[in-house]
Amino acid sequence: MSPILGLVVLFLSLWLALFVHAVHDEDVRTYIVRVNNRMKPSVYAGVNHWYDSTLQSLENYSAKQYSSKLVHVYQTVFHGFSAKLTPRQAQQLEKRPWVVDVFPDRVYKLHTTRTPYFLDLYSDLNFSVAAPLLKYSDYGSNVIIGFLDSGIKPDHPSFNDTGLVDLPVGRWKGNCTVEGFRCNNKVIGVRIINDDGTDVSHGTHTGSTAAGVAVENVFYSDNASGTAVGVAPKARIAIYKVCNDDGICLGSYVLAGFEKAVEDGVDIISASFGDQAHEDFYKDPVAIGAFGAMARNISVIASAGNVGPNRGTVANVAPWVTTVAAGTIDRRFAANLVISPEVTFNGTSLYRGPPLDPTPLPLAYRGNCTSLDENFSGKIVFCDAAIRHPDVNEPISIDEVVRNAGGAGVVVANMPRVGRDLIAKDFAIPGLVISESDGNMSRALIMNGMMTNATMIFRGVEFVTDQLPAPAVASFSSRGPSSISPFVNKPDVLAPGVNILAAWPEGVEYKLLSGTSMACAHVSGLIALVKAVHNDWSPAMIRSAIMTTAYNIANDGNLILNNEDAHESIAWDMGAGHIYPSDAIDPGLVYDITPQDYVDFLCASNYSDPAIQSITSDTYGRTANCNERMPWDLNYPVISIHSKLLGPNITVTRTVTNVGEDDATYTVNVTNSEWVSLTVNPMRMDFTSKGQQQNYDVTITATGLPGSLIVQTYIVWSDGKRQVVSPVVIFPPYSLS
Q1: pLDDT digits (tens, 9 = 90+) for 140-168
Q2: Catalytic residues (predicted)?
Q3: At the top level of CATH, which class does the domain 635-737 belong to?
Q4: What beta strand segments (E) does 155-264 contain?
């Protein structure tokens, strides 16, 4: 070979190596591909063959290189597949005429002995006297809740199936697909969709919160003793493991979870995770999967998120999803920071070791307490709360730092925006958590030399109303409005989500957790009870019943407050209010919404045909089928109107369905504000049969409305026995700031 030819060969070899290296180095990630299956060529026997052939035709595609060809194939709630692709290959796919949309996979994050009594499901703490709702629903018997979550520990005492009979033949189409999992008549199905990891803690906790059977003599850390029971103790549980051990739930797995849950025959899907990307619905696997479930009469409940209290942080905002915020209950794991007989700060703790000597010890402030020296030995150390991750305020390691320095105890003070949330924590040494306001006062006294000694008293479980009324909206609970569709108020309702005791798979049998995941589980159980009584109701009717019977008055007789700043909560914080299960089975009137109504909403929100097809299915999405409406015309139980639309007034129409007695008469009452007045026409509705529908118009008039003000009023329909309550929210242009 000549020297020149050798150089040419060397150059070409290097160029080829660099090219291949560049192709391999180009980002490879999972993409979700929406396909119009009606365009499948007849040469292909099935869609799997067609999808695989499509991938093989892409430039530089190598299934071996990317570990697998098709990650998931979707055929129920969504038509298409997910696959590992480079951005260039994804762009090539988008140009194929049968491809409706291609979008990157999304990352979602996973977001009780007292609560059934707090919710008035029982009239005694032994849970022996059940409310009529539980009796009418037979405790949720034969309703199947599908949990998209981590795994579950099916042999936990909370999932014992004693007394539960087999489901009717053909009622359940799923099974246990994993070796070593023993299903029974309580946990009737387990599918491992994401096999990354073995953690089952989150799913065990949420599953037992919603549908755990009664277990007596339960306690955690010598606290919260009593009977643990879920909201719907006879409901059946199916688990779809879509999340890994780090609490990460990829959208491609989530969508596959929706597919399997719908195919298996669940009645309810509970999704306790979300993200903060605020993508449009047609690129959101939760919104897409939930639409397919809703269209098959399956209720979907999701958590609002744990990144409050900032506005516009709420997740899972699709209008066909029931979105749940987290609130407190009236139980406190009481601990006191005692300065003197006259000066005491109330806090919370799960510390279970030897008590402190009642003789006051030196008290010292040390900021966030990331490091301490021997000067803090023998002292009670006052620390500012350390945020371990964005979801919760979790001072896990502070007590370890103080103990290692020889400290006698630790006081953890909530920082700004955490406010009055008192999240009970285990402490390795005597320790407690106090509120932001008490922390500010204590810190100032210490730094001014006015508070030099203290001790701590651990009081155990207390039920209080005077110091911290309940419920209150947890500061961590994500807030509205929705940045995707502000004319649909989110969240929908408030439910217990702080210091919730439920089943745990290891170390202890029951554990306290806080988060909107816990609140979501409570509402999932409640919907199971309502579904058991009203199996013919649509998901929108069930949600309406829960929303219009919710309450907004705490147990001290005042409006429900925000734990962030002790101000009154509005619909952006708690939706229509806190759930009240006993009234939800007999709401009188409901606001129903059909799948076509949601399509009309998407059309009115300027979604394109391909976008609507991505969200819905091939059945929907053609604008010729859309009725001319505005986004605020969706028949939602809460009316949300932008103040710019009031010039000076606007008229909104709602439709109610009678689900009470055949003959019923409802009259309306409205609450007006200084700046906004409501006029309802007609003011009286007469019904002659169950299922009859009637419309009413609401004219909203603004007078001198300040541009920055959020105004909330109410429409209340009553037949003398029931009250059907709908909040009306008028919001300003810059609400997300």
Answers
A1: 889 999 999 988 888 899 999 998 988 88
A2: 149, 202, 517
A3: mainly beta
A4: 187-192, 215-220, 223-228, 236-241, 248-250
